[in-house]
Amino acid sequence: MSAQPITIARSKVWNLPGGIHPAEHKAESNKTPIEAIPLPSTLWLPLSMHLGAPALPCVKVGDTVLKGELIAKAESGISANIHAPTSGRISAIENHAFAHESGFKQPALCLEVDGLEAWRVQNPWADWKNHQISDIVQRIRDGGVTGMGGAGFPTDIKYRNKHAPIHTLLINAAECEPYITADDRLIREKADEILQGAEICQHLLGADNILIGIEDNKPEAISAFETAAQQLGIKIVLAVVPTKYPSGGEKQLIQLTLGVEVPKKGLPSDVGVVCQNVGTLRQVYRSVVLDEPLISRITTVTGKAVSKPGNYEVLIGTSIETVLNHASAHLKKADRVIMGGPMMGFALPDITAPVIKTTNCLLAATKKELPAPIIDNPCIRCGLCEQACPVDLLPQQLLWSSKNRHLEYAELHSIQDCIECGACAYVCPSRIPLVHYFRYTKGELRQEEKDLQESERARKRFENRQARIEREKQEKEERRKARAEAAAKALAEKKSNTDGSSEAGKDDPIKAALERAAAKKQAKTTTVETQTPEELKELVEKAKAKFEKAQQKLKDAEANNPSIDAYLSKASVKLEEKYLTADKTYQAALNKQDKSSS
Amino acid sequence: MISISSPHLTGKQSVSRVMFTVSAALIPGMICQWYFFGWGSLINVTLAVTSALILEAGLLKARARPVGFFLKDGSIIVTALLLGIALPPLVPWWITVLGSALAVIFGKHLFGGLGQNPFNPAMVAYALLLVSLPVLMTTRWVNVEHPTNLIDSLHIIFAHAGDAIDGFTGATPLDHYKLNIAQSTAEVLQTNPIYSSFGAVGWTPVNLAFLAGGIILLAMRIITWHIPLTLLLTLALSSILFGADADTHVPLTLHLLSGSTMLAAFFIATDPVSAATSNKGKLFYGAGIGLLMYLIRTWGNYPDATAFAVLLMNFAAPLIDHYTRPRVYGHSKAVSGYKHDKK
After folding, report:
1. Among A347, A378, A383, whose Cβ lies nearest the Cβ of B114?
2. Hey, which residues does A94 pair with through a beta bridge?
3. Among candidates A348, A245, A248, A341, which has minimal Cα distance to A300?
4. Which residues pair with A182 in a beta bridge?
5. Do A101 and B3 touch (CB under 8 A)?
6. Which of A111, B80, B238, B259 fits a 20 to 30 Å CA distance from A338?
7. H or E segment at A107?
8. Residues in Cβ contact with B122 at an 8 Å cutoff, skipping those fewer than 6 apart
């Protein structure tokens, strides 16, 4: 690592339309250092705590596992590995409470903690730079690393997929939601690990810059980054953005720090950027360099109902109740416990659900702090929502179309581009739960799309069925015709055999033709037997000549033109067949002749 | 259990707060009106607010809506205030009450109440009164030389409802100038005591007071600058382009600082329910009102034109909305019109 001091550049910051300035409530939890929560007795590890396909358990009930051992394997594609956060015994694989608004249970592995904290064999890579890019990416995947800012997108996918050249690795350190300070605290304490993770990602992407987008309400974190960058000799650029919600949204941060917009339905990589949360980068470092998979995370525990608000290092799978109790939360005082921030988080229906990879904050709020929604007034189209919308939608128009279920009109107003940040609902003087309406409409649109696809499929299936029925009908008809013809033929034959005369055929041309055909057939079958020896001899001669000629032809062809073998061999086979037939006829004729002569 | 979805945090703004702020911002203008023209306007305002509240309560009850909840939002008070301020100060009491009824019934509740009305309720009432009762609605302006005291005002409004009261009344400066400039010159007209060196006596300070109230609303972000700016700009530009000569046309100062111009620009045209919705749309909407105001004032039969200009643009607002959607993040251009391009 280079020791010479480097200057840390500050980059220009662009404007973000709209946005709001809610009370920050960060001071409650960012004053104390991160504290580890003692080992709980059991951990519940849901198989689907990331975006994409659930992981598949690769252990059985009763297995003992070591800390960091793989217990559920990622499916191919978008999925993530799950590791044992500590050593112990797998005691169950069954449905368990899960952190989701629906309150539905999800399949999970239950780990009975033995308290030994016995690690599996680790294989640290101090020299990660000497490893192949694909190996490093595989190591990120093996480590079960997912985005730790919110969505839980498997991290390796961002480095695996082919995309436009990336010029900037954007570190998302904005953390704009009120109350949450997990990233802030993590930067203050582990800026070096974050930057080393960033260095790895920059290496994987071949990006020119590491750009850090951070809000100006985190001066300590900013200086921690600067100090760490100086010490490690990692070149970074700081983009200090004004404190405004939702500047920490991926697309918003790109707009703020780079002045470009991610195209509609596109990805940041389309504009040459990969955005990564600080927690994720730290985990990349830990997984790649230290060979420690994602088994714990920093979670802010805060809210008026919590007596010891702060940031805690929590093992994945720890019950939320345990975490809250450790932070001395008065659960009776808490009106609701929210996972995530107050703007985009959701109220937990069951606090026995475990902490998962995306649990960045647990907010136990009192009724006074986050009052229950009041009956909303009608929309007066004041347009405050429009002024607050960071993506320039017209929420007041979207409300009309959502309420009246005018889905087409909602699409016309680009409802699909809503990031559900909640700024509109926050400023609404009528206290209309706008985002709630928009989520409903988006769901309806998704359903409509699905129905459309399904009906399209049903239509195709129906058409195919109709075509098949038609075809079968035709085939049946043809078969019937053929049968009728055959029957007619047979009848005619019978008739001609019994009558022996063709008198009747004169009137009917079909009958006559059938009779002629029958007569011909009969003649053919009877030729050999009824021929005289002289005639037979002639036939034999003919066959012999034909055969000799054929053999000559074959030989000639083989000798003269070996290059066109395929054609020749085909021809020769045919000729051989002809020869064989001729020979057979010849032999038969000879036999016949012998028989007849004797 | 009611499931509460995000955001869990809400701001402090509320409809009643918005409405009461708007009402408060009208106070400076109302004080000026009282100072220069006497008690007429205040009596009108009181009458309008009282009758509108009673009617609103009655209609809410008839429509089986929570009366207290909707009365609390204060929207009807703003409507009544605007009507009371806009009416000529010495109109008979029953005109004010009729106006309130028209605003509440035809302006608001027939369309479904708060937030549903396509037209500005106060302007619906004003326009209906103006076309139905043109004489009473144009001859009851106070002569600025004789502001009426409380007793006279009450007497005229309640007792002499239909009588001629020439001593107290006079034409508005806009009206007076327009009618007399044909036979006179600007210089001669300026000698009339109703004009000051800067606009019209009484009317100019009233307008400036409404301007001040409007600026308070702008600063408090209750309204945005788009509608007032383009409205005033278009009105001013039209005046400069079509009628710069004060010897033939009403001059710019009178257009901007007399009549109901500032009230219209900051309080009437900015009624969010009936206005165009997007920022871009508001620009067109405001400009449309400004232009129509000038056209009607100059070539129409009505000396002031706020009500008709606003109502006409109310009609146009949905159309404007369809063609002035903002460009959404990540889109190459704004989605415009009625058809959706699914790509």
Report:
1. A378
2. A108
3. A341
4. none
5. yes
6. A111
7. strand A106-113
8. B79, B80, B82, B83, B86, B103, B107, B268
CA angle B259, B261, B263 (to 5 degrees): 105
Asked if A18 has any chain B CB less than 8 Å from its own CB, the reply is no
Strands A361-366 and A334-339: antiparallel
A429 touches chain B (CB under 8 A): yes
pLDDT digits (tens, 9 = 90+) for A194-213: 999 999 999 999 999 999 99
Contact in structure between A256 and A239 (CB atoms under 8 Å): yes
* Separation of alpha carbons B89 and B141, rounded Å: 6
Cα-Cα-Cα-Cα dihedral sign, residues B305, B306, B308, B309: positive
Q: Is the pLDDT reported for residue A188 higher than 70?
A: yes
Return the H-helix or E-strand segment holding A591.
Answer: helix A565-597
In a 10 Å sphere around its CB, with 0-12 CB exposed, 13-18 middle and 19+ buried, how is residue A149 labelled?
Answer: buried
d(CA B113, CA B175): 35
Quote the CA–CA distance of B237 and A359 in Å, as a whole number: 59
Q: Which residues pair with A89 in a beta bridge?
A: A64, A112
CA distance A347 to A369: 14
Q: Which residues of B touch A399 (CB under 8 A)?
A: none
Instruction: Tell whether B275 is within 8 A of chain A (Cβ).
Output: yes
CB B115 within 8 A of CB B302: no
Q: How far apart are CA A332 and CA A304, in angstroms?
A: 12
Distance from C-alpha of A573 to C-alpha of A440, rounded to nearest angstrom: 73
Gap between the Cα atoms of B80 and B61, Å rounded: 19
Q: In this predicted model, what pLDDT tens digit does every residue of A258-308 receive, in sequence order?
A: 999 999 888 999 999 999 999 999 999 999 999 999 999 999 999 999 999
| A265 three-state secondary structure | coil
The token duo for B63 is: 């429509």
For residue B151, give how far its alpha carbon lies from the nearest alpha carbon of chain A (Å).
Answer: 40
